[in-house]
Give the backbone structure.
Amino acid sequence: MPASSPPRTAATPRQPAAERVYDHVKRAVLERRYEGGMLLTEGELADAVGVSRTPVREALLRLEVEGLLKLYPKKGALVLPVSAQEITDVVETRLLVEEHAVRKAATATPAGLVARLEELLARQHEQAGAGQLADVSVSDRCFHAEIVRATGNAILVRLYDQLRDRQLRMGVAVMHAHPDRIAKNITEHTEILEAVRAGDADAAAEAVHRHVSWVRNLVHGDVR
């Protein structure tokens, strides 16, 4: 009897070309491999991803709507720098959401929250030691997002998630410009965690305010 053939497995569907371009450009912008002020051309991006120019155009239009790029016909797409106004607006929104969330978390700490924050804090230590700034920025955002998610308020969580890309991009930019802030961020995250663990809502809100506000202080020249 002839040997049986190995079972056939379904091929993994390939991601659409426009989606591949979108993911490539967005990740590069968020990680500052494509920095603010850089002009990206359709031809260069098509070559980088291995697609035609049509899906590149589609992806760039989507990224322009998200506020990461500005398109110039027949020239390309300009990566928009992070503006002082954008930083101020993001910080103001974060303070409104996060101070409320951390007070609620400290007053009635949800099961598992402290353990999740401890895990994220340990991950930040490891990533900082390895110099993985983009990964540190992601873990930093996840730390805060866990506290917001712990409110159980789905509308608040969705609002906060809308800031995700802006936070990641700002975080990487700041860490490159001020690498000493990485250790300070970890220290301040520890202070937030300890206040939540102790059930001290006032101390937790104060720690969050101090931690989140420093970026706005940087814009106004008050770096601490």
About this structure: Strands lie at 39-40, 69-72, 76-79.
